[in-house]
Amino acid sequence: MIFESSCSQRNVFPDGGVLQLFTYDESQLEEVLRSDIGRFRNAESLALAALRRAIITGTLPPGQMIDEEMIAGHLHLSRMPVRQAMAILESEGLVMRAYKRGVTVTELNRSEIEEIYHIRANLESLAISRAVPSYSDAYLDDVAEVLSDLRRAGNDSADFVDLNTRFHTMLYEPSGWDTLCGLIVKLRNNIARYVAISHDFIQARPNLSVDHGRIFEACRQRDAEAAADLTRQHVFNAMNILLKTFETEAWISVKRPEST
After folding, report:
1. How distant, in Å, are the alpha carbons of 56, 79, 116, 119 from that of 73?
2. Is residue 95 within 8 Å of 60, Cβ to Cβ?
3. Domain range for residue 57?
4. Of the candidates 222, 205, 217, which has an alpha carbon nearest to the alpha carbon of residue 164?
């Protein structure tokens, strides 16, 4: 069953067609949510991980209202751990509560996306410059395996987002600055849901893959300055791709009323 997003950015054509940014498939949502069942020891951790994954992958798209009872049902949980997970996601900026509207997935405008990418460019270049001296050959071999998987991700947006996040996280974690890495993860999560549903990102993956290869090679050479410069440029390249999506509205779909 396809449900219309609660996203406010839509127009109605004279023939009744609705121009809308997002739709979501409840059966796909159920599949994503249930994929985490059995991986966590407590209900709140399960609800948090499942909801965060659904938002980051675009399965719950920006602007979508979230039915707590439905989520709890799919996860075989009571509503309490779902509410607790919602509170954490709200603190992370992934959802928001509105009077009489309940909880919705947070939407970002162009200015907010530019701001996040500029902050990321500074934080991620700092993290990798600190991390490079700590890399061991064995650790970089592990990163290389993730990079290889990322290159083979194909058009699966969820796999791409997961592997892309893992690749960059592995490069930053040896910095030893947990607060810095935590801020980066939070900012990346706020952008990831737009990346997952942007057709321009799918088309640009070969170019982004070249960026990844250059960053990794700089790390392999233990060139912290080059790794930082390449990371900064990579973040801005990604920003420009996503802003192009906003300009061209490449993810917009047109839903027409069924003929009678």
Report:
1. 21, 8, 34, 38
2. no
3. 2-107
4. 205
Same-domain pairing of 153 and 239: yes
Half-sphere exposure of 208 (CA within 13 A, CB side): 27
Residue 9 shares a structural domain with residue 64 = yes
Apex 199 CA angle, 191 and 203, nearest 5: 105
CA geometry: angle at 254 spanning 250 and 257, to 5°? 175
Closest C-alpha to 243, from 124, 117, 157: 117
Q: Is 4 helix (H, G, I), strand (E, B) or coil?
A: strand
Contact 137, 93 (CB under 8 A): no
168 in helix, strand or coil? helix
Query: In tens digits, what is the pLDDT along the chain, a chain of 260 residues?
Result: 222 333 333 333 233 332 234 444 555 565 656 665 656 678 888 899 889 888 888 888 888 889 889 889 888 889 999 999 999 999 988 999 887 778 999 888 889 999 999 999 999 999 999 999 999 999 999 999 999 999 887 666 677 888 999 999 999 999 999 999 999 999 998 888 888 777 777 788 888 899 999 999 999 999 999 999 999 999 999 999 888 877 765 444 333 334 33
Same domain (yes/no): 177, 134: yes
Q: How many domains does the chain have?
A: 2
- E-state strands within 123-246: none
Claim to verify: residue 146 and residue 243 sit in the same structural domain: yes
Q: Would you tell me how many other CB atoms lie within 10 Å of the CB of residue 144?
A: 14
Determine if the pTM surpasses 0.70: yes
Check which CATH number belongs to the domain holding 10 and give it. 1.10.10.10
- Burial level of 128, CB count in 10 A (0-12/13-18/19+)? buried
